[in-house]
Amino acid sequence: MIPLLLWILTSHFPWRGNGAQEILASILFVLASITDGLDGYLARKWGQITTIGMLLDPLADKIMVTAALIALVAYNPDVIKVWIAVVIIGREFLISGLRSIAASEGFTISASDLGKLKTVIQIVAVVTAILAHRWDHWQIGVIILPMKWYAIAAAYFTVLVSTISAVDYFIGFWKQIDRASKDRRKASVLSRGRSASII
Prior knowledge:
elongated
């Protein structure tokens, strides 16, 4: 879905100027987000969790978000500023790095509620930024939905929640890595003690 999304958001897309570009890109991104969540849910429910799945699932998720944000910096720079994309993408790299270190140390960092909230807001930010490229507002009867302001608010809120959740993940990681290093020191001391008693 990622190459298709990027193609839709470029000037090479043939049906531009009538809203089809924005609607199709939004639908595709929402579908990709839903299938990403559904895939993980079904894997856990049916016991189909695999090593390759654990690698590819978060990787695909991060590539999708990164690709969408980079495309939106060019597509709708009024909403998705370069620094916004850098903060959100940087946060994704940071968490991936922490999870890699955690895995090498023998523990996992599970998704926090803040991380899940960030994902939902991020989806809203991307979709509204895509739609705001064409429509400043939507009018449904007497109700006016200011799409551009929703998109800007969602983008800034995503940055805020991303930053807070990154700090939360780092604190959780630090506690676990500290505990793991203490356990290793204890095991090393016990091992040396047993060796000395044998001698």
